[in-house]
Amino acid sequence: MSLSPEVAFERYRDRVLSVIYLRMGPDLRVRMDPEDVLQEVAIEAINSWHTLSDPANAGAWLVTLARRKVARILRDQVGVAARDPRREREIRTDFPVADRRSGPVTLADRKDRLTLLEAALTRLSDDHREVIMLARIEGLAAKEIAERMGRTENAVHLLLSRALKRLAQELNL
Q1: Which domains does the chain have, with CATH numbers?
Q2: How far is Cα 68 from Cα 46, in angstroms, rounded to an integer?
Q3: Which residues, 6 or more positions from 142, have their beta carbon under 8 angstroms from its beta carbon?
Q4: pLDDT digits 0-9 by tens, 17-44
């Protein structure tokens, strides 16, 4: 049985959402919900599923789509007169918006944990933050991280170990 885009997306949903949330940053999240970006990534994944050469790489492929989507959004925000978030108001509707995968408590808990993680990540050095993002959020192998960061694989393993230890300290674990 071959992997369908829907099944792959559900399997890697949390990882992709974490990448989107952390890459967007707090300023962009004021204007745009990460779940909306996730939905756009899902549509893009379904429409371009035929370009995936190996379904075993679906997770990394979806993360790449998410990173590119956030990068396009950030690029489009630069140089454009951004809306003032203080003037935006919530739109009330009678239509319930429900996610069958989670309830309001689960969603609030997820957002709280992501907020704590983001705050802890911002207190790390750039190298520590980058190696954690690449290894744990985007799921890249040490070899790929080493190529991106211009280090050896052993140096990446050491850096990741130190970064995770420092992150645990920041999270008071």
Answers
A1: 1-84 (1.10.1740), 102-173 (1.10.10.10)
A2: 16
A3: 135, 153, 156, 157, 160
A4: 888 888 888 878 888 888 889 999 999 9
Q: Residue 99: phi, psi to the nearest 5?
A: -110, 120
CA dist 166 → 118, 121, 163 (Å): 14, 10, 5
The pTM (predicted TM-score) of the whole model is: 0.54
DSSP assignment of the chain equals -PPPHHHHHHHTHHHHHHHHHHHHHHHHHHHS-HHHHHHHHHHHHHHTGGG-S-GGGHHHHHHHHHHHHHHHHHHHHTTS----GGG--PPP-SS---BTTB-HHHHHHHHHHHHHHHHHHHTS-HHHHHHHIIIIIS---HHHHHHHHT--HHHHHHHHHHHHHHHHHHTT-
Q: Quote the tokens at residue 149.
A: 């960061």
Contact status, residue 167 vs residue 121, Cβ threshold 8 Å:
yes
Least confident of 57-66, 94-103, 107-116, 140-149: 94-103
